[in-house]
Amino acid sequence: MNAVVNVYRGEQVESSHLGHIAVVDQHGTLLYSYGDPQRLTFARSSMKPLQAIPIVETGTADRYQLEPADLSLCCASHSGEPRHRQRALGMLERAGQLEATLQCGTHVPRHEDSYKELILAGKQLTPVYSNCSGKHAGMIATATHMGEDVATYLLPDHPVQQRIMDVVEDITGYPKEKIQLGTDGCGVPVHRLPLANYAWAFAKLAKPEAISNPVRRDAAKRVVEAMIAHPEMVGGENRYCTDLMTAYKGRIVGKAGAESVYCLGDRERGIGIAVKIEDGGARAINPVVNEVLRQLGIDLDGAWKELHAYTNPPITNMSGTVVGRIETTFQLKPENVSIC
Amino acid sequence: MNAVVNVYRGEQVESSHLGHIAVVDQHGTLLYSYGDPQRLTFARSSMKPLQAIPIVETGTADRYQLEPADLSLCCASHSGEPRHRQRALGMLERAGQLEATLQCGTHVPRHEDSYKELILAGKQLTPVYSNCSGKHAGMIATATHMGEDVATYLLPDHPVQQRIMDVVEDITGYPKEKIQLGTDGCGVPVHRLPLANYAWAFAKLAKPEAISNPVRRDAAKRVVEAMIAHPEMVGGENRYCTDLMTAYKGRIVGKAGAESVYCLGDRERGIGIAVKIEDGGARAINPVVNEVLRQLGIDLDGAWKELHAYTNPPITNMSGTVVGRIETTFQLKPENVSIC
């Protein structure tokens, strides 16, 4: 049983989560694992940095003067704060497109004040409030720049999605014909690969010199540096992605995915880490990532300590009293095998 | 691996949930199991029908003219609809108490329109919006009727909680000294017992003649009949508890608990069922309960079919398109052992 997290009520375990972990270096060597490092996994929004690479490669970013903060928003599962919505709309505007071209659907944003304002103004949720609106704005801008059909940018055989498939194959090192597809929560194709290949991809994002194609290498570098420079665009206030990258001051690039996935890269050591909680339970993922960083000894005296609120989060009742806690239970297993 | 549910994205498994199931008859015989039927579990709000029994036993229900709908609300994790809030406030008023005596804390109610109304009126959430406000109103009314301190009704050694402990010991058949305590989301003590004992308790609620103490037997009967007569008070619109009891027209009494617990009793056969999803993932519980009912052959041509929306719920993306589904994966194992 590959338990990674116990959830306590008082001093007793109430619930527990299983999980899978892969730690891979830039050369494709699996260094550590837990559970099944080859688990076939939809990495969901953790793939947004890869999905953003064609925006640079195609020249779209230059054509529409995308700033680093814009490019960071293209990699975001943002909270729908005003700064996020304004940038997404701004990118569309520079590409000559309207909000209505966004096909991401919508949902109540994490940023409560933005939602309350909307209700008070008697307005309805629109697609720009979706946490994926930056990614979709980037896809639409790319299709526009390339003179492709904008109405069908979601479809797996659209050039926008085909270019993303090429990037995923190249950077994860996993052959296209073996990649299974599903549909993501925002309507775009989502790819299913072994967890270790996502870890390898993030090792390469952390050390783009490991990417052989020079145009792709530069594009990957530009995307990662945008996220590092503007972590507030990747998530928002009190969001783990934002706080993780802020605390590590450029050392770590990381991105969460739905169904409890996290992928991150250590730019100092050139290693990538990918985690999947088996049941998709969101509360388990941040404590597990923090514990992996601790076991790998990544800046324990500095940045890691700043993230303590995510390490053993308390369980509170509806009056705010602490009635339990979340604790990790795993020990990484050393490995030394190539996944290439 | 005791997997009970697979979550599919397209045709691939994205996440999965483990679980535990106990099916026990009114005499305390374990009939079927899956996973660990003796798993020590906090049943959380699934215990509300037991927590409501002292309201009747003490004469509180008669003293303050609690109607069956009020008593049903005392067993509820309600959605905070106007009908729920009005009844909770009405019970407090008849006991001569104010809303401020409720110590359940508060949270955004499931009933979206009620929350929007509150925001539009510029008001704040108050404790009556908590899904537990009916249970707390019942506890406060009981303390008032008994002349006990109202300010401390949450504490484990308060007579209100001690009477509940007596009921839990008696009806679950599990000795008080072995029961571990935690604090529930609403601040009251919550009990940790083997899953099979919860199933036995619900078998007794289904057939109260199995309860030896005649006062308790009548009180249990009155509580169960209140829930059966007013399932709309136990949950609300589009809530599984409400829809389950409505569909089965008096045959089933059931109550959900936080961290993915469900307890129910079949009043025709006199059996109780208790389910716990190991990771506490809410989406897994209703499909599992429906599948247990199917495997036990409980009214498959009638009520069961009406609940189809809960059996294999689709996973939709933010535009409402179906992109996956939830499917159960378990087969109950026949047993025939006494848990007494």
UniProtKB/TrEMBL annotation, chains A, B:
Pfam families: Asparaginase_II. InterPro entries: Asparaginase_II (IPR010349). This is Asparaginase. It comes from Brevibacillus invocatus.
